[in-house]
Design brief:
By secondary structure, the chain is mainly α. The protein is built from six helices and no strands. It has one domain: Orthogonal Bundle (Globin-like). Helix content is 72%, strand content 0%. Helix 1 packs across helix 5 and helix 5 runs antiparallel to helix 6. The structure holds protoporphyrin IX containing FE. Protoporphyrin IX containing FE binds next to helix 2, helix 3, helix 4, helix 5 and helix 6. Keywords: Heme, Iron, Metal-binding, Transport. InterPro entries: Globin-like_sf, Globin/Proto, Hemoglobin_trunc. This is Group III truncated hemoglobin.
Length: 131
């Protein structure tokens, strides 16, 4: 199996990840019904995000903490949601890629997800962030 090395690889990973996310019974509706995500807009943004995280490219413009903070106010994001997000992400990486960068993608996803949940649950609305 090949490693995750190019923009094309990231596109495959991100497209496949969000296809699974949309169909997921625990978190899918947050994307499709709560946030009503415009995928034509969101997917290219996520390609840029992962290209920045993994390969240091400069294309990503956004404020993920702010976006999820607002989303959490609309609909509480729980620890269980983040755990599911991570497990789908890891499974998708492992389905297509293996190697140093595949490993890095999973480690970065974990640390960003955990930090994001920590910030949301401590600075956001603490009483709503119980499991
Ligand atoms: C249960 C967990 C999560 C949920 C429900 C969630 C949901 C969302 C939603 C609804 C958006 C806005 C999409 C749009 O309308 O354009 C978004 C944006 C985004 N998400 Fe998440 N997300 C989660 C976890 C994560 C994690 C762990 C990461 C990173 C590792 C991440 C990275 C991003 C980025 C980079 C954006 C774009 C931010 C921007 O536009 O500035 N998300 N997410």
């Amino acid at each position: 199996m090949k490693d995750l090395r190019s923009r094309e690889d990231i596109e495959l990973l991100v497209d496949s990840f969000y296809q699974k996310v949309q169909r997921d019974e625990l978190i899918g509706y947050i994307f499709t019904d709560v946030a009503k995500v415009n995928w034509d807009h969101h997917l290219p943004k996520m390609y840029d995000f992962w290209e920045a995280i993994l390969f240091g490219q400069k294309g990503f413009k956004g404020n993920p903490i702010e976006v999820h903070f607002k989303l959490n106010q609309k609909h509480p994001l729980l620890d269980s949601h983040f755990e599911r997000w991570k497990s789908i992400f890891y499974a998708t990486v492992d389905e297509y890629f293996s190697g140093e960068y595949a490993q890095l993608a999973k480690e970065k996803a974990q640390s960003i997800a955990d930090l994001m949940f920590f910030k949301i649950s401590t600075l956001g609305r603490p009483t709503q962030n119980k499991k």
